[in-house]
Each structure stands twice: as C-alpha cells, then as structure tokens.
Write a structure and sequence with these properties.
transmembrane helix; Cd81 Antigen, Extracellular Domain, Chain: A; Tetraspanin/Peripherin; mainly alpha
Length: about 325
C-alpha cells in the first residue's frame, strides 16, 4: 500500500511539474512576443510620465517583459529539476526544487500584492494632471523624442488628441516656443489618410491639413480627433493590468500546487524509507530466529529410535518451511 501511495504522489508531482513547465515556457514565449511589440512597449511610456520610473532609458513595459521572460526561464529550469526529483528518492534534490519554487512564489506574491493594493507606488496608472503637464512640458522638445513618439502613437491608435482635449496644446512648450508655428495641434491629432500603414504615427499624412488645423470647431470637426486620450488610455491600462494579474494568479496557483505535491511526496518517501528499514530489521531478526531454531534440536533432542528421529526431523522441516514462508511474505510487504 505504501508503494502505491508513493507512486501516486510521484504521479501527482510529475503532473504539477508538467504544468509548471508549460507555464514557464508560455511566460518565456509571451514575454518575448510583447518585448518585440515595440508599439505596445512605447505606449507604456505614458504610464510613467513622472515619478521614479520616468527617468528610465526605456518604457516600463520593456522591463516588465524582461522580468516575465526571466521568470519563465527560472520556472522552466525548476521544472526540469522537478522531473529529476520525481524520478528519484532523494531528499536533497526534492528540497532544492521545493526551495526554488517557494522563493519564486514568495517574490511573486509580494509584487502582486503591492501592484494590486497600491499600484501608484510602482508608478503605474494614468494620472490625468501629471500626464497633461508632461505633454505640455515635454512634447516636441529635444531629448524627449521617445515621449513625443509615445504621444503621437496614442493619438493615432486611440483616435484622440491631448489628455482631455486639444486645447492643452495652446499652452504647451511645443506651441509657445513656436516649434511648429503653423500648427494648432500635432499632425497625429488629425484624421490620417495613411492610418493603415505601419508606423503612420511617425509620418502622419492628414486627410485635410488646413481643415484639421482650423481653429473653428465647425471647420475642423470631422477632420480632427476631438476626444481626449484619458479614457482610452485608462481602458488600455486596465486591460493590461487585469491580464497581468490574471496570468500571475494562474502562475501562483500552479506553483502552490507544486509545493503541496512536493510536501506529499516527501512524506511518502519518508514513510517508504521507514517501512523499508523496518522490513529489513524484521528479515534480519527472522533469519536469526531460523538459525537458532535449527540449532536447538541438535542439543536438546535424543535419537532413541529411527521412527522418533524421523518425527523430530519432520517437525524441524515443517518449522523451517513455515519460517521461510513468513520471511517471504515480509519481503513482499
């Protein structure tokens, strides 16, 4: 029964380990796909216009995807170790596997709890006032090309202009310093004729430039995006936020199942080793009893006649057979 329980626990461990392997491989592939999705990564630049992450050389999603790929590599390596641990009766390998998964689980839970309870402390989220001031201060300015490209991408892909409205550009450095004196709003605020072309936000071509740049609403309406980017950006952020937490929850549940199956396997290995040791001791004690029982008739019994000697021999033979049967049954346990 103990052997069956041990085999069953190892099957459960192998299945959970297979799920961990699939999870690690999926994280690696998914992280690499997002990492090379330059427009998605660039758009995340608008999530941290100010704060501790605003000075990073790359957008925030760039580093998040690198962390996801690294996590996938760690989980894949741990699952390979787990395959080895599920095939051998070794506490050291199983303990190392358990420790790696436990450390990863604790780190993930800490990060997910912080992001879930207090995302602003990580610089995540769309803050209307901060984003508006960042656009007025940094859009179109030298050394802020990446931020400018992120704003142009958002206005092109989300069909919006500014944070609340296009009027924010009236007081921006881009307009006040006459960097583009002939324009009332950036070209990406206009409805573009090349919207279906790749990277159209880098080379925008308005359907009608004069009407798009007209100050009167009745003239530019239909040729310029009038909705602000605040709500579309919040929806974009919310969708990615929920997806990130959802994937994290699945990973945590799989890792937790791996830990439980590892504990069950360790327990079964311990009981199996104890039963094996007990069986070995019983076999050794039984061997000693058989030897002593075989020697006892030589010193205690007398051979008075042939029939009596035959009777004693038969009794000893039957006793030896019974001892061997008991010994065989103990070995089968």
């Amino acid at each position: 029964m103990a052997v069956v329980s041990l085999v069953g626990s190892k099957i459960i461990l192998a299945f959970c380990n297979f799920l961990l392997l699939v999870c690690g491989f999926t994280l690696m592939v998914g992280g690499m796909l997002v990492f090379f999705d330059h427009e998605r990564v660039l758009l995340s630049k608008l999530l941290t216009p100010t704060g501790p992450f605003s000075t990073l050389p790359h957008p925030l999603l760039h580093y998040i995807t690198m962390g996801v790929v690294l996590l996938g590599i760690i989980l894949t390596a741990a699952s390979i170790l787990g395959c080895w641990a599920s095939c051998v009766h070794n506490y050291c390998i199983l303990s190392l596997y358990f420790s790696i998964v436990l450390l990863v689980l604790v780190g993930e839970c800490a990060i997910y709890i912080i992001i879930w309870i207090w995302p602003n402390c990580m610089g995540l989220g769309v803050e209307d006032g901060e984003l508006m001031r960042a656009i007025q201060r940094n859009y179109g300015i030298r050394d802020q090309e990446e931020f400018t490209a992120a704003v142009d991408l958002a206005q092109t892909e989300l069909n919006c202009c500014g944070v609340d409205s296009a009027n924010e550009y009236d007081t921006s450095y881009w307009r006040l310093q006459a960097l583009r004196p002939s324009l009332a709003v950036p070209l990406t605020c206009c409805k573009l004729s090349n919207i279906n072309q790749p990277k159209s936000y880098l080379n925008p071509s308005p359907t009608s430039l004069p009407l798009c740049q007209a100050l009167e609403r009745n003239r530019h309406e239909g040729f310029r995006h009038t909705m602000g980017c605040k709500e579309p950006l919040k929806k974009w952020y919310r969708d990615h936020y929920i997806a990130f937490l959802g994937v994290g929850l699945v990973v945590v549940l799989i890792e937790f199942s791996v830990l439980l199956s590892s504990i069950v396997t360790c327990t079964r290995i311990y009981h199996h080793n104890r039963e094996t040791e007990d069986n070995e001791r019983n076999i050794q004690q039984l061997d000693a009893d058989i030897v002593s029982s075989n020697l006892a008739p030589i010193t205690t019994f007398k051979r008075s006649s042939g029939s009596e000697a035959g009777a004693y021999s038969n009794e000893l033979y039957d006793m030896g057979n019974q001892m061997h049967v008991v010994k065989y049954r103990i070995r089968e346990m």
